[in-house]
Give the backbone structure.
Amino acid sequence: MTEEVIEEIHNKVRQYAKDKGYVLNVDEKQLSAILRGLARNLERFGAAYCPCRLRSGDPEKDKIIICPCIYHEQEIEEQGSCHCRLFFKKKSE
């Protein structure tokens, strides 16, 4: 897994978070583990599947768990973060 792929994914999720008004996990160790999981899935399976969800092996069924997965918005709204703890709700100031 290359650092370029990890950095590319980091830039993509950072921009997504900014566009949606979310923040990324501030714990660098956790963030790095999630980014590495996304990069590994991208290289192995051809898509950045959420590393916290089980793939069925059927690309058609599994497209709902490509990051950002279909569950993340509801999870962030209800729990303050997505299941992976990649995206967090911004704290009110």
